[in-house]
């Protein structure tokens, strides 16, 4: 599920272009893995940062082209001012809010407007479903030919 979520959010929604700067919150709890094994340019543990704004500026001194939102709350508030005009933000989780009785409000949404940031949420399950029994053969062929990664669900009828 994590792989298809990353694929959909990154490639289908954000459509990255070569040279763009990408910030993925909560990409992994293991920063060393990201840098030493997976070859990320940089990584930091946001739980170890006292001032998120300063940490983001340290890693993105100019701007962020694409932000993949997984944390929400203070993280989103810190990122929005640092996204370039016409930047993209995809959101699939807000893990910092899961255990909160009253979720933290986002205070910097004005940046979405003034910077014309495209912000789109998604639920990965929407990308697993093919509708109609007539679509089942093509879905099966697509699944086994590599067009679909993971599970393939065919919704036969909504009733």
Characteristics:
single chain, alpha/beta, 18% strand
Task: Tell me what the structure shows.
There is one protein chain. The protein is α/β, with parallel strands linked by helices and 159 residues long. The strands form 2 sheets. A 4-stranded parallel β-sheet has the order 1-2-3-4. It has a two-stranded parallel sheet with strand order 5-6. The model has no long low-confidence stretch (mean pLDDT 83).
Quick synopsis:
This is Alcohol dehydrogenase-like C-terminal domain-containing protein. InterPro entries: ADH-like_C, MDR_fam, NAD(P)-bd_dom_sf. This protein is an alpha/beta fold and 159 residues long.
Any chance you could write out the topology, listing elements then pairs?
Elements: H1 2-14, E1 22-24, H2 31-37, H3 52-59, E2 64-69, H4 74-79, E3 83-91, H5 110-114, E4 118-121, E5 129-131, H6 136-144, E6 153-155
Parallel strand pairs: 1-2, 2-3, 3-4, 5-6
